[in-house]
Design a protein that fits this description.
Elements: E1 4-5, E2 24-32, H1 43-57, E3 64-72, H2 77-89, E4 95-98, H3 102-114, E5 118-121, E6 138-140, H4 145-158, E7 163-169, H5 172-187, E8 191-198, H6 206-214, E9 219-223, H7 226-238, E10 247-250, H8 255-261, H9 263-266, E11 270-273, H10 281-294, H11 300-319, H12 324-333, E12 334-338, E13 342-346, E14 352-353, E15 356-361, E16 374-380, H13 382-385, H14 395-398
Parallel strand pairs: 1-12, 2-3, 2-4, 4-5, 5-6, 7-8, 7-9, 9-10
Antiparallel strand pairs: 11-15, 12-13, 13-14, 15-16
Helix pairs in contact: 1-11, 2-3, 4-5, 7-8, 11-12
Length: 400
């Protein structure tokens, strides 16, 4: 599909006479975890990011009256589904943003497609969102389990930790992350010696860590996120896991997790991110504004909400519509170049293609402040980071 870089779009661009018209009313719903294990990496910070995007887009001067609302899905698909239906049927919501927890995201994606609205997902990771459970109006913005596996799984195996044991959150995201990482490990010459699944969310990882210790694995892959990852790492330290010669690979770890653990505990950890606040001058400038509003540095989920909202609003402005199929088609036909993710584009299946980055957590001596936590190891081009569209199982792509 031929794509064009977003530029200034006016009625005159299409050879049409400019005329006064009513503003387009747009309601954006930020649906996420506001009270549980993902609240720090998502939560209210995503609401702040969405409102920053509306302000930076200067929506009002472009004829868009935009309202941002929010709700807590509590990481439960039934609650998320009920909120999505009410938002679409009664509250006039045009697009839902964020939605961490893959099981909730997949449920909301179905309801969104039925309502001909847009889901711009920044928080969930399952590749099923653009694979076998894809929907034409789902845009998967920030990361997915394949990109995480490619970055962290590949790097850890290639440095010599060949035998893996997985400690996996027992729901769609954890399963997907384990599956994708297993593929990378085996392709890189490693082997999987075992795995165990823990409830989501969990507080006591002791029995699971004992199984991992007894497995003889070189590395314990943590296929979980947020508070689960932080708690597993803390308890692994209490059990002396790393002192016994095994290493930990947090397959999805956010800067808020590293900050909570501290450089002393997290130092040397390798992780994959789509965004880091200190990556360049543009990310530093935006992150400073975000921190002023929110009180902490942004995660890649927050950054994805901002960038996805900007691209969505550009689509509404350009098309003069909030219909999901119309805006999704525009978003897929037009590339973006924003200050947080750089250049990228939305594939036909809804997967957003942009660079991913492999980082290593600094030692306490290297760190110059509480949020100065990463050293850049390498950048993975988007076309390499994410799975190819061919063979993904996305029906509407394969049929087109």
């Amino acid at each position: 599909m031929k794509k064009t870089v977003i530029g200034a779009l006016t009625l005159a661009s299409f050879g049409l006479p400019a005329m006064a018209q009513d503003n387009i009313e747009v309601t954006l719903g930020v649906l996420n975890d506001r009270s549980g294990v993902y609240a720090d990496l998502s939560g209210e910070g995503s609401v702040v990011a969405a409102r920053m995007a509306v302000a930076d887009f200067d929506a009002e001067s472009k004829g868009l009256d935009v309202e941002v609302i929010s709700a807590d899905h509590q990481n439960k698909p039934d609650i998320a589904s009920n909120i999505a239906r009410q938002w679409y049927d009664q509250d006039g919501v045009d697009a839902i943003l964020d939605v961490p927890t893959s099981s909730t995201a997949l449920a909301v994606a179905d309801i969104t497609a039925q309502a001909n609205k847009i889901l711009i997902d920044s928080g969930a990771g399952s590749t099923a969102l653009t694979g076998e459970q894809c929907q034409p109006t789902t845009i998967h913005w920030t990361y997915d389990t394949a990109a995480l596996a490619k970055g962290t799984g590949g790097a850890v195996t290639e440095r010599g930790d060949k035998k893996w044991f997985f400690l996996t959150a027992d729901y769609a995201f954890g399963h997907s992350l384990e599956e994708e990482t297993m593929k990378i490990v085996e392709e890189s010459g490693g082997e999987v010696v075992g795995s165990v699944r823990h409830p989501f969310p969990a507080t006591d990882f002791s029995s699971f860590l004992l199984q991992a210790q007894a497995s003889g694995a070189d590395v314990i892959g943590l296929a979980n996120a947020g508070g689960d990852t932080v708690n597993a790492i803390k308890q692994a330290a209490e059990f002396g896991v790393t002192q016994s010669g095994q290493s930990l690979a947090a397959l999805l770890m956010f800067i808020t997790d590293v900050h909570a653990l501290g450089a002393e505990t997290a130092q040397g950890s390798v992780l994959t991110e789509a965004f880091y606040w200190d990556h360049d001058d543009q990310t530093r400038e935006w992150s400073a504004r975000f921190e002023e509003e929110f009180g902490s540095k942004p995660t890649m989920v927050h950054a994805g909400v901002y960038s996805g909202t900007m691209h969505y609003l550009a689509g509404v402005e350009a098309t003069g519509s909030t219909d999901g199929d119309v805006v999704a088609e525009w978003m897929k036909a037009n590339e973006f170049d924003d200050p947080l993710f750089g250049k990228g584009y939305v594939r036909e299946d809804g997967r957003v293609i942009h660079d991913m980055h492999l980082y290593e957590v600094k030692t306490p001596d290297e760190s110059t402040g509480e949020w100065d936590l990463y050293n850049l190891v390498s950048t993975i081009p988007g076309e390499e980071a994410f799975l190819p569209m061919e063979g993904s199982g996305c029906a509407f792509v394969n049929e087109s």
